[in-house]
């Protein structure tokens, strides 16, 4: 893996028909912001070879909205990404490292925000950037990291949805 893209799911409905958090779908606005983020990433040149997506309805919906911007990407749905902590997310990404140059993880907070902060700190990103992510990592936000030959992350982009 040469590049890692972390994408938080888009804005979800407050409740599902079943009452189960796992089944919460994207709100209309969430689908729009997810599609826009997909286009923004692709226009910037950040296109995944492999997307690892949480099986929760809102994460699957985020990928479905963003996927047209990434027509060459393969997708794999991963149960363990549902509300995963940062170590689990990192493990899923590392497992995919041998399969793809650019890996995207579509998942949830707080794990994605915590992993973004950890990778920024490991890569010695500016303190102001780290503080920005500590304050807020909104729905449909994306962070991008280059991964060097030794597995070290280097900040490559932070994208918040336009609201």
Would you write up a description of this structure?
This protein is of the alpha/beta class. The protein has one domain (3-159): Rossmann fold (3-Layer(aba) Sandwich). 36% of the residues lie in helices and 21% in strands. The chain has five helices and six strands; from the N terminus they run E-H-E-H-E-H-E-H-H-E-E. The protein has helices at residues 28-44, 57-66, 86-96, 111-122, 127-135; strands spanning 3-8, 50-54, 74-78, 102-107, 142-147, 153-159. A six-stranded mixed beta sheet has the order 3-2-4-1-5-6, with helices on both faces. Strand 2, helix 2 and strand 3 (74-78) form a beta-alpha-beta unit. Helix 3 crosses helix 4 (111-122). The chain is globular. The termini are far apart.
Which terms summarize this structure?
163 residues; alpha/beta; Rossmann fold; six-stranded mixed beta sheet; 5 helices; 6 strands; globular
Q: What is the CATH architecture term?
A: 3-Layer(aba) Sandwich
- Count of strand segments: 6
H/E element sequence: EHEHEHEHHEE
What is the CATH level 1 assignment?
Alpha Beta
The helix content is: 25-40%
The coarse silhouette is: globular
